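#lab-general

N.A. 3:47 PM
ok so I finally got the sequence cleaned up, no stray characters, all 117 residues accounted for. can someone with queue access submit it? mine expired

B.Y. 3:52 PM
send it over

N.A. 3:53 PM
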Amino acid sequence: MGRGFLRWAFENPASFHAITHPDVERYADAELRAETMSFETVVHEAIAATQADGRHPDVDANVLAYFTNSVPFGVAMMLRSGVFQRTMNIEDREAFIADVIELVCPIAGRAGGQSLR
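B.Y. 4:20 PM
back already:
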């Protein structure tokens, strides 16, 4: 989910900017609120599935939801705002996205620090 979100944020910077504007939540209609709740349900279902598979089974699901969503969202916010723009050149978006998400959710059996490239 994090990979998909970062891809979308890279490819749709104006839409990402729009959805993160404070007025979106303030003026959201019933349909948008329902879609937001649907997204939250999908996130919690994914977390429950990974916990059932043994990943962080004793951690509160809300803590995991905030953590696993904050990294891709935070990276997208930093990219949008231009933080590190002068010192960071992302030549390969897919490798960058994979490396960011790997830090949050390592793939079992991979040697530590090994890029997905």
